[in-house]
Amino acid sequence: MDDLLNVKCFVLVSVLIICSVSVSSTALADQFHEELFIKTLPTGQLYNHFRFTTIWNVSLNSSQSKHYRLFPRALGEVFETFSVKELSLSFTQGRWRHESWGYPVLDASKGAELLVWFSAQKTKIDSAWSELVNVLSGMFCASLNFMDVKTTVTPKLNFRPTGYVTENYKKYFSNHVRYAVLSNENVCTENLTPWKKLLPCGFRAGLSTLLNAFKLYDSSYHSLNVQFRHVCLNEKIEPLKIFYQPGKDNGRPYHLEVLFNLPANSVARLSFQFEKQLLKWTDYPPDPNHGFYIAPSVINFILPNAGNITSLKNNKHFFTGLKNSNKNDAYTFTLHTEALLITLPTPDFSMPYNVICLVCTVIAIAFGSVHNLTTKSFVMYDPQKHKNIFRKLKDKFWKKKEKLS
User: Fold this and answer.
1) Helices within 63-124 (DSSP H only)
2) Any alpha helices (H) in 35-124, and if so which ranges?
3) Are 347 and 281 in contact (CB under 8 A)?
4) Partner residues linked to 16 by β-bridges
5) C-alpha to C-alpha distances, 231 to 58, 162, 234, 323, 338, nearest whole angstrom
6) H-helix or E-strand containing 355?
7) Which domain of life is it from (predicted)?
8) Range list of H helices, 21-149
9) What average pLDDT does this structure show over 29-53?
C-alpha cells in the first residue's frame, strides 16, 4: 500500500458520523468502520478515498449522550452546546478535473466549506453560527472565523438535510441552515493533525497510519471532510422554485438559488445582469492585486438512477453499499463549480502615504516661512558698530596714508 501512495495520486479523506434514530428500547453498541476505495483514473493516476464511519447509537437529548466511547468527545460537546442537527465541513486543496477524471465519490468546494443545520429548538441562529465557526476554527486550526455575515448565506432551495428530519422541520425551519465558503483557505498539516484526533485510534492504528502528511500534501488533489447527520430517510424535495436575496454592502453576499428539472442530453445555462461598482478603499482585502474570489456554485442533482456514478446511500457502509446498491434507485449527487477569481482595478494604496508626505512637506515649508516673519525683529545694520579690531586698524592706516599723500 505504501508503493501505491508514492504514485502521484488524489486523496479524499472523510469522517462520517451517524446518529442512529431507533424506536426500539434496546440500543445497539456503537460501531466504527474504516474503508479505503482505490480507483485508477483514465489519466493513469490513482484516486484514494478513505472513509471512517462512526455510528453513535444514542440521542443527543438523552442522558447517555454524556458518555463517549468511539464518538469524539470534542465534537459531541460542540454539537450539544450549539444544537447542531447536521454538519458538513471540508478542507480541499487542488482542482478536480471532471472532464479527465470523471466524478469523485464526494465532491467538495475549493478551500474551506461549512454547512450546518441547527435544531428546531435553537432560536438565535446567527449568534450560534458565529460562535460555532470560532470554535471549529480553533479545533481544526483553520481561519473559519472569517465566515461572518459577509460570506454566509441561508440557502432556501439548494440544500436539503441528508439525514433524518421530520416533515415539519423541512416546512417551518428552513431558515435554520447556514452555508459559507472560504475559497482562499490553505490546507496544510495543521488541519490534518486535529482531524486524525477525531478517530478512535488516532493515527496509531488502522488505515489512518497510511495518511502520511508529506505524501498526502504532495498529491495533485486532496480533501478532508467531516460529516455529522442522523440516519437518512430519503425524503422527496420541494417542487420547482426560485429564491433570490440581494446583497448588502458589508452586510451579506448575493444569494441565488434555482430549482428545475433537467431532461436527459440537455444543457442548462444560467445568466444574470449585474452592475460594476467601485469599492471603498477600506473594503479591499489584503493583497487586492491577486484578485477577488467568488465562491463556487453548488449543484445538487437528484438522479433517477446511479448507473453512471460511483455513489452509495448515506446509511450504507462504503463497500457494502457499492455491492448491494440498486442502480435503479434515486440518488442525490453534489457538484461544485470552480472558484472564480476576478481581477478588478485597484487603487494605488501607496497614494495616501505620498499625499501625507507631500502635505507635511508643504505645511513645514509654509509654517517655517510664516514663523520666521512673525518671530524675527528687523533692525538697521550699522557698519561702525560691528567692526572688529583688525578692521579698525586697517581703516586708520588708510586714512593716515591718504593724508600723507
Assistant:
1) 73-81, 98-101
2) 73-81, 98-101
3) yes
4) 53, 227
5) 12, 8, 9, 20, 31
6) helix 351-375
7) Eukaryota
8) 73-81, 98-101, 125-139
9) 87
Cell of 300: 445538487
Going by the DSSP 8-state scheme, the letter that residue 402 receives in this structure is: H
Residue 205 class from Cβ within 10 Å (0-12 exposed, 13-18 middle, 19+ buried)? exposed
Amino acid at 331: Y
List beta partners, residue 293.
341
Domain ranges for the chain, please list them: 2-342, 351-404
Residues 300-346 have pLDDT tens digits of: 887 776 666 666 555 556 555 555 555 556 677 788 888 888 887 77
Query: Amino acid identity, residue 221?
Result: Y
Question: For residue 116, what are the CA distances in angstroms to 176, 179, 229, 373?
Answer: 8, 7, 10, 71
Element of type H or E holding 206? none
Cα 295 to Cα 152: distance, rounded to the nearest angstrom: 11
* DSSP class of 61: T
Cα separation, 9 vs 21, whole angstroms: 37
Alpha-carbon gap, residue 301 to 305, rounded angstroms: 11
Kindly list the distances between the CA atom of residue 205 and the CA atoms of 33, 49, 50, in Å, as whole numbers in the listed order: 13, 18, 14
Instruction: Indicate if the alpha-carbon torsion angle 126, 301, 313, 106 is positive or negative.
Output: negative
Each residue's pLDDT tens digit, 173-226: 678 899 999 988 888 888 888 888 888 887 788 888 888 877 787 888 889 999
